[in-house]
Amino acid sequence: MQLSPDEAAAAVERNPCPKCEVPAGSVCRTRAGKVAAKYHTARFILVPALREDLAVTVPADRRPGSAWTPGPKIPDETAGQPGDPIRIGYARCSTTGQDLDVQLAALRKAQCRTVFSEKISSRVKQRPEFEKALALARQIKQAAPHQPVIFTVHEYKRPARNSAELMALAADLETAGIQLELLTGPLVGIYDPRGAGSMLFAVLANSAQLDRNYIREKTLEGQAAAAAKGHHGGRPKVIDDDMLTFAQALRDKGTPMPEIVKKLTIKTGKNTGQHPSVASLYRALADQATA
Questions:
Q1: 30-to-11, 27, 41 alpha-carbon distances in Å
Q2: Contacts (Cβ under 8 Å, ≥6 apart) of 86
Q3: DSSP string, 63-122
Q4: Does residue 140 fall inside a structural domain?
Q5: Where is this region: Disordered (predicted)?
Q6: Domain range spanning residue 256?
Q7: Any domain includes 198
Q8: Residue 158 located in a structural domain
């Protein structure tokens, strides 16, 4: 650490705290209204010399644990003087079988101070680490409006799954004044949603939707080609056509259903060699009747 404990405390107190909302010049406070023993992370991380520290303690002369009173107001010498950009990184892959190492290495190389990552399916609407990354970026921007904050991702598909989500993200970043950085792909760079970069979000939205439409079309074409060759997706039938014809003949003769299933044997799947259930036979006969 480049600062002594007292210097670190003075540097932290030059910024208002976004968590407990104390003004500049005052120490952090607890929910009980007492002086906190440590400054809140979202506050001391704004000081470049302290970003690598895990905690900054409140000096004893600030009386931790005592009733909190506001400190003297101090002039904001940093207003209008932005420091180095603060990058918040986010990495995601869809399944546990995929690897995040490439994304994480790229985010570290981009000098992201904090990186959030998760392995979660694109079908899941709630992504906890994604929400945490955005929340931290918003907290830092609120605490220091003059400070550039950049939300960094490996590619545009990581934070959004479709055009609707991408446009929602664009609106969120624009409201908070947070920039977006893409490390790979055809649109590498940093984009400010309030500047010329606002055009990017419309392009990304169209690209995401086009990608999904292309994948869907190719999937449907593959299914049609397989069906033309007699290959159909899904699990194999428990009761095939031959078994169904035999069961129908027995039923027409008045054979009870429990006795019919004992004469049938499943030929494929994990239940090979077993008898189908009475319910399965009823469903198969009903489907045949309505076909």
A1: 20, 10, 13
A2: 45, 46, 113, 140, 147, 148, 149, 150
A3: -TTSBP--------TTTT---SPEEEEEEEESSTTS--HHHHHHHHHTT-SEEEEEE--T
A4: yes
A5: 63-82
A6: 241-290
A7: yes
A8: yes
Same domain, 91 and 135: yes
Q: Is 113 within 8 Å of 88 (Cβ atoms)?
A: yes
Q: Is residue 163 domain-shared with residue 68, that is, in the same domain?
A: no
Please give the tally of structural domains in the chain: 3
- CA-to-CA dists, residue 286 to 113, 189, 273, 279, angstroms: 62, 60, 24, 11
Question: Which of these three, 72, 97, 124, is where a domain ends?
Answer: 72
- The DSSP-derived string for 120-138 is --TT-S--HHHHHHHHHHH
Same domain, 19 and 129: no
The SS3 assignment for 282 reads helix
pTM (2 d.p.): 0.47
- Check residue 60 and report its DSSP letter: G
User: What does the pLDDT profile of the chain (291 residues) look like in tens digits?
Assistant: 467 888 888 889 988 898 899 998 899 999 999 999 999 988 888 887 787 778 899 998 889 999 999 888 876 554 445 568 899 999 998 776 678 889 999 999 999 989 999 988 767 778 899 999 999 999 888 888 888 899 999 987 788 766 667 777 777 887 888 888 889 877 788 877 666 555 666 666 566 566 666 677 777 777 777 777 766 655 667 788 888 888 888 888 888 989 988 888 888 777 788 888 888 888 888 887 776
Q: Verify that 282 and 253 share a domain, yes or no.
A: yes
173: left (phi over 0), alpha (psi -120 to 50) or beta: alpha
Query: In whole angstroms, what separates CA 219 from the centre of its chain?
Result: 26
